[in-house]
Amino acid sequence: MNKLAIIIFARLNSKRLKGKVLKKIFDMYLLEIIYLRLKKKFNLPIIVNTSKNKSDDQIVKFCQKEKIKFFRGSLNNVFLRTIMCLKKNKIKGFVRVCADRPFVDFSEIKKAIKIFQTKKFDIVTNQLHKKVPKGLSCEVASSEIFYDVSKNKKLTKSQKEHIFNYFYNNSIDYKIHKLRNNLYEKNAKFNLSIDNPKDFERAISIFLRYKKNIFISTSKILKGLNSK
After folding, report:
1. What is the CATH number of the domain that holds 63?
2. Helices marked H in 12-152 — which ranges?
């Protein structure tokens, strides 16, 4: 591929845990931990994709301070915001990462990228079956399919907010590789996402178990949870 990027989707108006992406784990923001985990393992552009809403000014200030590339667009139409970000940065394909997932799995992403770079698929994803721990979704996609949909299709509210829903709802029309991971399937009951205060405390306790090592591998975490 000519240009592949990692896009971290972040906003502060979360209903269940307001401002969670800028809450601190030890002395680092949640968003910062995710960015650092990715930066350490990938020599790819990393862009924080947020909204033009005033509530997200703090995310932009953080990005500016840390010299992290960012893009701002529509708050509610995330699909449109994604397209504008792809066009602005001339991205041919991207990895989607959500900013409430501190244990983002670099090995799963590397596997997905390798498959995607064969140029045989529009999307490489582990989200077309239910045997994935919450917080470990992995999606890599071609920018072109997003452009085509924006020109030719009217999206539902859900499809505007959850940017891969249109493609999954119409999967017969796209070349999609269904990523499988045996360790994920054995541990699908676990939740490694952050949606509420309890999830946040659990994330802190996991990092503490590994001496605050924010680069701990996701596979080690899963094996540790399974042995408890």
Report:
1. 3.90.550.10
2. 30-41, 57-66, 78-88, 106-116, 143-152
